[in-house]
Amino acid sequence: MPRSAENAISEYRVLGSTGERVSPIGIGGWHLGLPNVDEPLSLRIVRTAIDRGVNFMDNSWDYNGGASEIRMGKALRDGYRDKVFLMTKIDGRSKKEATRQLEESLRRLQTDRIDLVQHHEVIRYEDPHRIFDPEGANAALVDARAAGKLRYIGFTGHKDPRIHLHMLDVAREHDFSFASVQMPLNVMDAHYRSFEKLVLPELVKRKIGVLGMKSMANGIILKSHTVTPVECLHYALNLPTSVVITGCDSMKILEQAFDAVHTFRPMSAAKAKALLGKTKAAAANGEFELFKTSSIFDSTATHPDWLGEEPPHVRQMMPV
């Protein structure tokens, strides 16, 4: 049997309460627009993944100045769009800016409907209130959903699990339920400011789709020399994740992801504990999870204009 057929994905997971069946791994969009990944390679990565059963595609309006969405849009031509569950993210907190970014994403991705759009980088305690303001970004996404431009709404963040819980609380106050939440889930997270311990149980209880990211923290976790890439992916797959999103900048790394899925078996509690034991000392202060302990992963901190204007009632209160 050819290796590509042997390692094809045949088992799928359910995305929360949506009923959508998604592949256990998804292709991360950020890597597709990196300088070391030319356009033909990015298209090959996406189409090979789809041909072998991956149906979840991750992206964001801000990835690589739009190059990631543009390339994915090209890769999804010729019938590939109908084979995938397409997700992207927007940074805008105002209704106006969120609408602008969504329209641009639709054009770049060459589609009239995105399956899942997520509020990106919810990393500040003020973000939920801006998003759920009457003139905030969620109003834009709800309108777009009603117009058929998107199907589901979620949010992402990488900074602090308590901010995720705050976002869920603010959504509930506005009688709104998210379809998905994206967050770091990896072999070090359990030891420091843990999304797994604080947020994951709440998502499972509410039947919200769990999108795991940063299983290797963009390779930084591997620099601890405590775990292998496949161990990182196996750990994330062992959690109640709907999808583990992984970045692939080469065919070799894509093959690694397929190998991880093919060799994955549910872990016993003892095996999971042993794996966490290998990372406990290295993970103690967040040294290898820099997205939690530094601003280098915070794109909206570098580009605050992407957030859009503060709500009107806030602007009225500001001193002249």
Structure described in brief:
This protein is of the alpha/beta class.
- Which strand order do you get reading across the main beta sheet? 3-4-5-6-7-8-9-10
End-to-end separation: 71 Å
Unreliably modeled segments: none
* Spatial extent as radius of gyration: 19 Å
Number of helices: 15
Q: How confident is the prediction overall: mean pLDDT?
A: 95
- Describe the oligomeric state of these chains in a short phrase: single chain
Number of strands: 10
The class by helix and strand makeup works out as alpha/beta
Q: Give the SSE string.
A: HEEEHEHEHEHHEHEHHEHEHHHHH
Strand content: 5-15%
Largest sheet: 8 strands, parallel, barrel
C-alpha geometry:
globular
Quick tags:
15 helices, two-stranded antiparallel sheet, 320 residues, alpha/beta, 10 strands, eight-stranded parallel barrel, globular, 13% strand
Task: Explain what this protein looks like in three dimensions.
- The protein is of the alpha/beta class and 320 residues long.
- The chain is built from 15 helices and 10 strands.
- It has helices at 3-6, 39-51, 67-75, 95-109, 127-131, 137-146, 161-173, 195-198, 200-206, 229-238, 251-263, 269-283, 290-293, 299-302, 312-317, and strands spanning 13-14, 21-22, 25-27, 56-57, 85-90, 114-119, 150-156, 180-184, 209-213, 243-246.
- The strands form 2 sheets. The chain has an 8-stranded parallel barrel, surrounded by 5 helices. Strands 1-2 form a two-stranded antiparallel ribbon.
- Strand 1 (13-14) and strand 2 (21-22) form a beta hairpin.
- Helix 2 crosses helix 3 (67-75).
